[in-house]
Amino acid sequence: xxxxxxxxxxxxxxxxxxxxxxxxxxxxxxxxxxxxxxxxxxxxxxxxxxxxxxxxxxxxxxxxxxxxxxxxxxxxxxxxxxxxxxxxxxxxxxxxxxxxxxxxxxxxxxxxxxxxxxxxxxxxxxxxxxxxxxxxxxxxxxxxxxxxxxxxxxxxxxxxxxxxxxxxxxxxxxxxxxxxxxxxxxxxxxxxxxxxxxxxxxxxxxxxxxxxxxxxxxxxxxxxxxxxxxxxxxxxxxxxxxxxxxxxxxxxxxxxxxxxxxxxxxxxxxxxxxxxxxxxxxx
Length: 283
What we know:
Blueprint: H1 2-12, E1 18-22, E2 27-31, E3 53-54, E4 65-69, H2 84-90, E5 95-98, H3 105-111, E6 117-121, H4 126-133, H5 139-150, E7 154-161, H6 171-181, E8 186-190, H7 207-220, E9 226-228, H8 235-248, E10 252-254, H9 258-266, E11 270-274
Parallel strand pairs: 1-10, 1-11, 2-3, 2-4, 4-5, 5-6, 6-7, 7-8, 8-9, 9-10
């Protein structure tokens, strides 16, 4: 319990004591590949593309921003070139957050007029990359891509806890690598066992392990915002996780459980609500 007290004291030592909650209804999720994905990762298999709007049908009227994503090719990259005219039509007056994967630098440079921020999945374990994505990359390759991206654009690293079938495998290594490389914010996700995927029968990582990681990240990054992102299990798991996140001193929670909002109120935190993807930075 002392570690929880330490994390809470750390939050209170840096006023204003506030927490941001997000319901991202003003960010349109756009898929460049419709519902198709060549990579068919163990945790997704294209399932979450079904909740996105195909880029050739996207109507962003009334939206402040777009998440540009889609299915990856067999090299772990988002195929973007043929869709640029559609993306250009979405661009005026909107912030664009891209999920590009292992993009090449030359391709990124061509995209820069349409990129405000890149959300990048960071992996700290070679075996996880091979098992989950089926890619012949290393954790060092992911780190190198992250560093390349940072030379050109704002990057928000996303780290999924328990990505390898609910088992921790390289998360602490990834955190250490990000510390060494530098980061402006960290978004933490948690594996969601999803029907129709290879991990459908796996459980999410134990809450105790997730809580320990939240505390470790908060202590390791005292001056860096730490967020709990949208991809995490629901139900009782989310209720307990979100409460733990409030206690641990995270700065932002996407689609929070009502109990977490009540807890933040009871603890006297100033609550601020946002309506766009958590990776998007507004003044």
